[in-house]
# Entry
Amino acid sequence: MIKVGLTGGIGTGKSTAVTIFKALDIPVFDSDSEAKKFLLDSEVKKNLMAYFGEEIFFNGEVNRKALAAIVFTNNSALSFLNSLIHPLVRQAIELWFDRHQSHPYAVLEAAVLFEYGFYKQVDKIITVRAPFEERIKRVMIRDGITKEEVVHRMNNQLKDNEVVVRSDFVLHNAEHDLLLPQILQIHQELSSI
Ligand code: ATP
# Structure
């Protein structure tokens, strides 16, 4: 089984690509939503309470919006959060790949594959790309946020060209590109290794 990382900046179309891989019966690990699950872990909550205090809690659970508002503007808070969550996510990824050995390949979706070292856990890397202005428009519509907020989030991610040179496959997802044939070609290649 080949371990494949799927990455790309905000709004490039990773989730759209994931829908296609799943339709091809390829298992996909969504690292974002798996990471969020660890916010329910009692040991993690204890550490968050000690660092951030009551202000990020509501009814005994982490208020993700309040937490996000802090870590998006405070790098040391973000590093602290990552130091709690990332080791747990790394371990979950290992176990998940082990459980999917019977497939030709399995996909780890991570926007921050390079930034946080998850690339070390995969054999091949696919990057999704789309033009900057299109990505901004898509995310403004999808998330109901301003252009400035989208650009701020983009600035926390690696530049497209840095990611592309470290990738084995690049999916182009501009307005008139078709993802399906590009993914079918990659699927065929990965299934025949
Ligand atoms: P994030 O990192 O923020 O989760 P993502 O890379 O997963 O983003 P998607 O959620 O797949 O990106 O796409 C962003 C938005 O753009 C979605 O609303 C999606 O429906 C839309 N979109 C994706 N691809 C295209 C396309 N080729 N043309 C038009 N809209 C698209």
Remarks:
- The pocket of adenosine-5'-triphosphate is lined by residues 8, 10-16, 111, 138-139, 142, 173, 175 (CB under 6 Å).
- DSSP finds nine helices and seven strands in the chain.
